[in-house]
Design brief:
single chain; alpha+beta; five-stranded antiparallel beta sheet; globular
């Protein structure tokens, strides 16, 4: 299962149910592109298919929604 946290434009931000034992992070996808960002601090972990300028845009979206992502993480996985 991969609950969607944010849907903005063509981007879907989500996490996998198996992510519980990793630090707080979010995955993002668009078409066949995927990336993973750590949240505290916000840092790109991995990316496949996204261009640099797109990753900068995605990081800005994450910064604006950082609290929402954290809340969704803790609501889903607990503390």
């Amino acid at each position: 299962m991969a609950p969607t946290i944010i849907k903005q434009g063509s981007y879907r931000f989500f996490f996998y149910s198996g992510d519980k034992y990793e630090p707080v992070h979010v995955h993002v996808e668009r078409d066949n592109c995927v990336a993973k960002f750590w949240i505290d601090p916000i840092l790109l972990h991995s990316s496949h298919g996204f261009r640099r300028n797109e990753l900068i845009k995605i990081e800005k979206i994450i910064k604006v929604n950082e609290e929402k992502i954290k809340e969704a993480w803790y609501d889903y996985f607990g503390n």
